[in-house]
Model the fold of this input.
Amino acid sequence: VTLSELTKQPLNQFTLTLAGPFHLVPALTTCGATLAGSSSCNAVLIYTPTAVGAQAGSLTLSSITPGFTPVTIPLGGTGLAVGQLTVSAPALGFGSVLLGTTSGAQQLTLANSGAAALDGLAVAASAPFALTGNGCGSTLAPGSLCTVTVAYTPTTAGNSTGTLSVTSTSIGVSPVQVALTGNGLAPGALEVSPSFLVFGSQTIGQPSLTQPVTVFNTGPTALTLQPI
Done:
């Protein structure tokens, strides 16, 4: 708002008084305690809604200069309700999972703790993690909950990281990201040595000499052997 003194008389003890949910921005406001004659200053205001719907306020200009009549400028704005997106956990860890297999699914709860519906709700997981269930529609009403499930299918050995992203097209709603972690394990590999045994000729009914067979696990993961 640009405020001008059109006469040559200065306005002493010049004050700006705000009513309602409106505030001056001091760093950008150039009006001081005196407004010189034939000069102007800028008052920069912001509106911070405190309720849903139309809100009124005013900016009143005052001075002790004789003959000055206070000036009141009406202000108005409209407060909009917004949704508030939250999730039940900031991260999900799936531990160690064999390559080529899928972990058990983990559940995540989404909530709208705001005063307006969350529209255009979308949930996506980055590979090698994937959604295995999505109980959330495209809209989440105020005060409502919904759940999604996520699983991990490692494709390479070692640590894996990913992100579960939850977004909404509603105004004022920030996206939420959940960190996903897991560890891919290469399976064990069974080898025997020697690869074949020859016992030669043996008298019927007489046991041969024993021959050893060595079993190796050349993979990084332990193997459970069934008894023979």
In short: The chain has a mean pLDDT of 91. The chain is about 0% helix and 45% strand.
